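Reopening this ticket.

The earlier resolution said the output was attached, but the attachment link was broken on my side. Pasting everything inline this time so it's all in one place.
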Amino acid sequence: MSRRESESVGGGGQEWLRLFHTMPHPCGYLPGRVTSCLLADPDHPMDESLYEVLLAKGFRRSGSQIYRPRCAGCGACFPVRLPVERFCWERSWRRVWKRNLDLHHSVQPPAYQEGHYRLYKAYLQSRHGDGPMAEGISPESYLEFLAHPFEGAEFHEFWLEGRVVMVAVVDRLPSSLSAVYTFFDPSPALARRSLGSLAVLWQIVEAQRLGLPWVYLGYWIEGCRKMSYKSRFAPLETLTAAGWRPLMTASSSPPEEEAWFSEGE
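Inline output:
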């Protein structure tokens, strides 16, 4: 990905981290728009503590890249997270949970498995066949997108009748879980199970079990159908100029960055 040096994050006794602007490219979520991102210096050592600091500042992981959208004239991408102890178990969520009690769970390291890859490819072709994610799928691009070298990245398998029907890629961090990506069997026979929602519910329950206060869900974009499901999980918070606030009462303006960005050379 093309990039140019932009800014730094740090100060107050913290180590400085260089950030780069990516070059503008078509937005994968809002048709007709152009996007660019802030990218954490890939040569800077990235451990769990630094990664979690960046999550709290609205960043997200794609493979080994830690990024945050920063698009000229657009603030549509809202970083969102769930405070798990205040999660509201609506009746519909309880039905989804009970409907999937026959699934079995196991955890695997972030390494290539042929069965995972086939499931990932089928999911992308079914759900995102009209977008860039489904183009040029390969084992290399699959692992590059989902894996991460530091401890804490996990592939959570969900089994039904002896086969894996869903994989949730989750980063386990000192104070949170970060939902990186989930893919599942797109067969109509499994549609009633609401596997995507189940993955989020499982991460909430797992965070509660581990005593972690947050589950980060990436970005929410109003008007984007592929993101709309996230707003059903309450009380969802988003990052604003005043810090993390409830999503439905947050300002539509993007968070101010001057408090933690400074101009680089």
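Reporter confirms the inline version is readable. The helical segments are 48-56, 91-99, 114-127, 139-146, 195-210. The two ends are 21 Å apart (CA to CA).
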